Amino acid sequence: MLKKLAFLFLIIIIGSTGLNAQHEVKINALGLFYGNYGGAYEYGFAKKFGGNISASFYSTPVFLKKILDLGYKSKGINAELRYYAGKNTNSSGFFIGPYVKYIKRKYSGIPFVEASDFVQVNITDININKIVLGLVTGYKGIILNNLVLGGYLGLGYNIYSNRTFTNPEITEKQKDSLPQGLTTVNFRIGINVGYRFVQYNESRYY
After folding, report:
1. pLDDT of 114-125, one tens digit each?
2. What's the Cα-to-Cα distance from 61 to each of 68, 133, 157, 190, 198, rounded to whole Å?
């Protein structure tokens, strides 16, 4: 479902190339500090509107995984429509808009007790899939015509959540004691640094 929505969103953006868009590529600089690697592409297709698509990936560092004997991976893809307030003509300044996000998580090597009458530890992996709808707001500035610097905050709600286990022997009661990862609220934060490619046209937005 999300892949179809993201594909449709991308087609709409690409189909607007006749409007002399501004193209931006960005990274989430804040995420680099805690190992969440993410990048984004934004297409400014009108005076006050932009379409933003981003992807992110996080994995437990190798040294920490060896110490804990546990692992965690998360990846997501996000599509959002931004409305820029103010009297700008270059898709910058304060913005707000809706977003849809797909999140896929995996907890590996999670231990659980096999039976209540004796202690026997078993292992399972947990796969989690979520779709989130929400609102994002923030500010984006353009420096020297091409350099992009900005930040954002987002808050969303899960409209779909699913959790599966790789070990078929786990019971429903045991599942409840393991990581849920199905919180109904999604929080986003980031600081973007990037570069803008501009298609110049004197009649743009007039």
Report:
1. 655 555 567 778
2. 11, 29, 29, 21, 38
pLDDT digits (tens, 9 = 90+) for 60-94: 776 666 666 677 889 999 999 999 997 766 788 99
φ/ψ region of 28 (left if φ > 0, alpha if ψ in -120 to 50, else beta) reads beta
* The CATH number of the domain covering residues in 2-107+129-164+183-198: 2.40.160.20
SS3 state of residue 136? strand
Residues 135, 122: Cα–Cα separation, whole Å: 41
What is the pTM for the complete model shown? 0.77
Residue with the two structure tokens 């959790």: 163
Q: Where are the domains of the chain?
A: 2-107+129-164+183-198
